Amino acid sequence: MAEFQRHEHDVLVIGAGGAGLRAAIEAANGGASVGLVCKSLLGKAHTVMAEGGIAAALANTDERDNWKVHFADTMRGGQYLNNWRMAELHAKEAPDRVKELEAMGAVFDRTPDGRILQRNFGGHKYPRLAHVGDRTGLEIIRTLQDFAVHQPIDVHMECTIVSLLKDGNRIAGALGYDRERGRFKLFAANAVILATGGIGRAFSVTSNSWEYTGDGHALAYNAGATLQDMEFVQFHPTGMVWPPSVRGILVTEGVRGEGGILVNREGRRFMFDDIPENYRNQTADNEEEGWRYTQGDKSARRPPELLTRDHVARAIMKEVREGRGSPHGGVFLDISWIGAKLSNAEDHIKKKLPSMYHQFKQLADIDITKEPMEVGPTTHYVMGGVRVDADTQMSSVPGLFAAGEVGAGLHGANRLGGNSLSDLLVFGMRAGKYATEYAGRQSKPRVDANQADAIVRGALEPFERAEGESPYKVEHDLQTMMQELVGIVRREDEIRRALDSLKTLKQRATQVSVTGNREYNPGWHTALDLQNLLTVSEIVARAALERKESRGGHFRDDFPEKDPSYGKFNIVVRRGPNGEMQVSREPIPEMRDDLKRIIEENK
Ligand SMILES: Cc1cc2nc3c(=O)[nH]c(=O)nc-3n(C[C@H](O)[C@H](O)[C@H](O)COP(=O)(O)OP(=O)(O)OC[C@H]3O[C@@H](n4cnc5c(N)ncnc54)[C@H](O)[C@@H]3O)c2cc1C
Fold it and tell me: If both were cysteines, with which of 258, 317, 378, 431 could 401 make a disulfide (CB 3.0 to 4.6 Å apart)?
């Protein structure tokens, strides 16, 4: 039998980003014994990279804002595929979660009278994003971490979970290895909360960190949970495109929120060319009105640069494809032009967008206070994930919960900027609360030693192959293939080619080998991550094939229009009894009348 360090917890939280930390705090406050596992060092989770802000209808900057407008904006942005109950809870509870964060010590930017300042972001009718310059994620992680380390939470950092454990149908814990020494750890737990983030590393151009290999999505799928909306991958419109070594790094939407404009190589502001019908009433039809909006004029409508991300990304692709792009295959994002409007523009840009200023100065030798940036779409976020109960966050597997980017439902076909950070707090807190309640009702699960042994044997296989291929090579080929064939614009023949290619890549992955020993061995880590990347890539491709229309983050060149019949269901994927991937359609429940009215009133 394999050797394990053994740990027992009522609630095991996998992931220490915003969702995982918030869940762990709630579970500890509820009296559960809590284990918190994360792949990187505590404080280094992907949430730390979040820039622009956290969306909550605090109405500090515009008193017309309230939860109803936020709810309607989120549903419109998600093209009505959202789980409307989650959208309701999120809009109602986000203000309290932000205030609570402030009480824990988060220092947000301030209005002149000392309240939390809020900024404009795409798809939000009113300025709604509480922020700390463009380093909001850092402040959120710092605050939650400071708070969490004073709670009775056992932290297991630099530990990667490779499989969930089950006792019959219910969850029994998880098995992982510590990255430093390569020793296996077995966690027995009554309830497990997945808070593992996203899948962006399945694509070659991405804003996502190395941790984003879809582990939680794959762990849940392999454990029998249902995934939904996986065809909806968000390609953020503005990533860096030059130099090649930094391609994909995010350029926050905050730049456009502060007045940044998008222009093509002819110097034309192309975003005015195509304003979608459902946003026409809310969008400025001239440059002057757009500028006034960014400066807080409440009678003005927002500029078309602040349309939803899916739309802006496709508008940029159109310019590039039709030969009006920038020299390195993007378009220009210009904030320096506000120098013509504000006497203190340079200081203003440096104050509101300090990270962007440094990012371009250091990585591209561009001074954004004086020159435009070159930007293009980058893989950023996955709207799809584990299908959960809206109130409790429990998945279809008893005892398995999911919160944050790994969960699905809130964002539908497209996420609005800022709605992820609030998602983490609202549903992280709920997952922590309900997992604790669930765990308290259960007897200790039975952990099957044979199950654990088999997982360890599988994880060590790459060491046993002497002449296999490098896992990095297979990973690289997978990312390139997904970017080309299942990326921002999709076609049936290309998705089918992707599925064929995935068969070959999976075969190659079974033959990869790693050298050296188990102590901090990145090749081995990559060989294990690769399994998850392959699983999530196939799920994305199969869901993308099933949705024969264009909506939100999913654009089909062969079905470029939205088809109303596809607005009535979510596409779900689960593992069949023989290990086959099953794709089906799950009808969206009829929305409550009071919520329907809110949407009508906010059209
Ligand atoms: C550059 C950038 C800027 C962004 N800006 C914003 C913004 O301004 N506003 C906004 O709302 N959203 C923003 N987002 C999106 C947002 O940051 C993420 O969606 C969010 O932080 C995800 O948080 P999370 O808690 O779900 O996961 P994460 O913060 O990614 O945490 C995941 C955790 O899971 C752990 N983990 C993963 N796999 C395993 C495993 N197998 N075993 C053990 N642990 C594991 C990781 O180590 C990590 O601790 C931005 C994203 C990027 C990339």
Answer: 431
